[in-house]
Design a protein that fits this description.
Layout lengths: L4 E7 L3 H19 L4 E4 L4 H7 L5 H9 L2 E6 L14 H11 L4 E7 L12 H4 L3 E7 L7 E9 L2 E7 L4 H16 L4 E6 L5 H17 L4 E6 H10 L6 E4 L1 H15 L8 E6 L5 E5 L18 H13 L4 H16 L18 H14 L2
Parallel strand pairs: 1-2, 1-3, 3-12, 5-10, 8-9, 8-10
Antiparallel strand pairs: 4-5, 4-11, 6-7, 11-12
Helix pairs in contact: 1-10, 1-12, 6-7, 8-9, 10-11, 11-12
Bound molecules: nicotinamide-adenine-dinucleotide, 3-isopropylmalic acid and manganese (II) ion.
3-isopropylmalic acid binds next to helix 4.
């Protein structure tokens, strides 16, 4: 049987830096666990624009459709800010999500004990936190039509459209309920049904899916603004949060600070099952290309490493090996390993990206 296939798209800024550490970990699984992947690598984002004049070449898109999973670093950067909107690096990532139909974006926020002191919130509020944000990823205001900048009388008007169909809400709700059943069996759905028709429909459909097929899961509804407040007031009240594309983008960055750093948060973007029964999937850190620290070897590779752990779990049926990698990360943090983003006011010398990779590899060796 052939090895499972993995397409690596390091992208821009710190993307290639954090991905270099993941490549070493993939190598470790081959050498030490006999788990081999057929890895191909390609371009996305600004670097693809520099090379091909487009942030995602059609050949790369086609490859992404064929592989068992895609692993992406980050896209974007100030060098590309002035580009025409249609070829901006971010458009490459959005095309991947849309054409692979990756409607369910899992963004877990877990506070490792060793970092509980480091959150901007008090320790007892975040210690032991383990929540999962399920962000709808292929619709909503990111993709709705009409959109654009138009002339209206003497001035211009910028338009984006929030749009959700019943089936789009239905399928992401189901993925949230399924996940909740494997966790603490609670889903909180967030929208703004008080001011948006799309929010009214969202609430109705989520409730219907619940009542018909998931009555055993505890369901609550919250306005997304109140949800942001509750996430900072007492985040441990949540288990799974399901929300739309834009609210999910905001709430997951907010959740990042509950865990200590944006450099800690992984994500999985999942679509419908392929012929092999596994979902179409793309794994990427929640963070961006971090232009302020790019090229300095300072980036925290943990978000990208934990994204690979999610790939082991959701695409390759290697839950035990995913747990091994997550435990290795937990151990290095408990032992005091810190990149610059994880340094508190007490100071000290931070580790480089590669040194954090070394520490995780050593912890993996120690796990055998
Ligand atoms: P960002 O996530 O790149 O950076 C925000 C802050 O977090 C910065 O101070 C950065 O140094 C820090 N940070 C992020 N990741 C880190 C890591 N692994 N280790 C240590 N520190 C880290 O967000 P931004 O500055 O708003 O965006 C920069 C560019 O990235 C923009 O072009 C944006 O569109 C793009 N972006 C891409 C993605 C993606 O590829 N998925 C996600 C978000 C932003
Ligand atoms: C994210 C990013 C992206 C988004 C951008 C880069 C397209 O912020 O993955 O959170 O807005 O979805
Ligand atoms: Mn974001």
């Amino acid at each position: 049987m052939s090895n499972p296939s993995l397409l690596i798209l390091p992208g821009d800024g710190i993307g290639p830096e954090v991905m270099a550490e993941v490549r070493r970990i993939i190598g470790w699984y081959g050498d030490k666990r006999g788990i081999h992947f057929d890895v191909t690598e390609d371009l996305v984002g600004g670097i693809a624009y520099d090379t091909h004049g487009t942030p995602l070449h059609d050949d790369t898109m086609a490859k992404a459709q064929e592989v068992d999973a895609v692993l992406l670093g980050a896209v974007g950067g100030p060098k590309y800010d002035a580009l025409d909107f249609s070829v901006k690096p971010e458009r490459g990532l959005l095309r991947l999500r849309k054409e692979m139909d990756l409607f369910s974006n899992l963004r877990p926020a877990q506070c490792f004990d060793a970092l509980a002191d480091f959150s901007s919130l008090k320790k007892d509020i975040v210690a032991g936190l383990d929540i999962m944000i399920v962000r709808e990823l292929t619709s909503g205001v990111y993709f709705g039509e009409p959109r654009g900048i138009f002339k209206e009388g003497n001035e211009r008007v910028g338009i984006n459209t929030q749009r959700y169909t019943e089936s789009e809400i239905d399928r992401v709700a189901r993925s949230a309920f399924e996940l909740a059943r494997k966790r603490n069996n609670k889903v909180c759905s967030m929208e703004k049904a008080n001011v948006m028709e799309s929010g009214i429909l969202w609430r109705e459909v989520v409730q219907k899916v619940h009542d018909e097929d998931y009555p055993d899961v505890e369901l609550s509804h919250m306005y997304a603004d109140a949800g942001a407040m509750q996430l900072t007031r007492w985040p441990k009240q949540f288990d799974v949060i399901v929300t739309d594309n834009l609210f999910g983008d905001l709430l997951s960055d907010l959740a990042a600070m509950l865990t200590g750093s944006l450099g800690m948060l992984p994500s999985a973007s999942l679509g419908a099952p392929m012929a092999n029964g596994r979902p179409k999937a793309l794994y990427e850190p929640v963070h961006g290309s971090a232009p302020d620290i790019a090229g300095q070897g300072k980036a925290n590779p943990i978000a990208c490493i934990l994204s690979f752990a999610m790939a082991l779990r959701y695409s390759f049926d290697q839950g035990d090996e995913a747990a091994r990698l997550e435990t290795a990360v937990e151990k290095v943090l408990a032992d005091g390993a810190r990149t610059a983003d994880l340094m508190g006011a007490e100071g000290g010398t931070p580790m480089s990206t590669a040194e954090m990779g070394d520490a995780v590899l050593a912890a993996l060796d120690a796990s055998l």
